[in-house]
Amino acid sequence: MSPAARSSTATKRLIVLFGPSGAGKSTLLKRLFKEYPNEFGFSVSHTTRQPRPGEVDGREYNFVTRDQFETAIANNEFIEYAQFSGNYYGTSVKAVKDALAKHPRCILDIDMQGVKSIKKTDLDASYVFVSPPSLAVLEERLRNRKTDSEDSIRKRLEAARAEIEFGNQLGSHDIKIVNDNLDEAYKKLSDFIFSKP
Ligand SMILES: Nc1ncnc2c1ncn2[C@@H]1O[C@H](COP(=O)(O)OP(=O)(O)OP(=O)(O)O)[C@@H](O)[C@H]1O
């Protein structure tokens, strides 16, 4: 990308990281948030699960009823949503806008369906495709991570093909970062994010 194109996209404050499971998105973000603890806002997700002791509505989650959640789905208010253990969880467009209003920058870590739905909203974002060096390396990293069952790894690898194909399309991203060497990938990410004040 030319320096001019790079700086024009980097002025946008919403940064969207996507890429297959195991590409290294969480690893890169963890490092970024550690180095810049006050720079980034987080959108507060909606959930239908009950608050746990100490959780505050609007802080950990926006706690809503099933009816409220399903109405919001019908009104296209979510960038992405899913059900886990019988409860809905989702990221709303409004939650992202609220986070952006309070912080200089906001980062989302989502999948390609989420990317497609953000592109249909009026949110102005910079898209970062985090790619593994190869499918073989991705598989090795998922196995070494030791967080998933064999079945879950197989599903993640199946989904990875479509994520990678989507990410490699020119229009899908502003920058593609191949996460081979972690230090180099991290430098590319932080340079991209901070190339404009
Ligand atoms: N450059 C790298 N070199 C070697 N290992 C890496 C590199 N980047 C990440 N890893 C390791 O690969 C594994 C997958 O990384 P990570 O969990 O950050 O992926 P992810 O994209 O966030 O996945 P998910 O979408 O499932 O949350 C982790 O065990 C991490 O430590």
So, the CATH homologous superfamily of the largest domain?
Answer: P-loop containing nucleotide triphosphate hydrolases
CATH topology heading of the largest domain: Rossmann fold
Proportion of residues in helical segments = 40-55%
Question: What is the number of helical segments per DSSP (H or I, 4+ residues)?
Answer: 8
Strand-and-helix sequence, N→C? HEHEEEHEEHEHEHHEH
The oligomeric state is single chain
Outline the biggest β-sheet. Answer: 5 strands, parallel
Using the coordinates above, name the CATH class of the largest domain. Answer: Alpha Beta
Estimated share of beta-strand residues: 15-25%
Q: Regions with pLDDT < 50 over 5+ consecutive residues?
A: 1-10
Bound molecules: adenosine-5'-triphosphate
- The total beta strand count reads 9
> Which strand order do you get reading across the main beta sheet?
2-7-1-8-9
Shape: globular
Number of domain units: 2
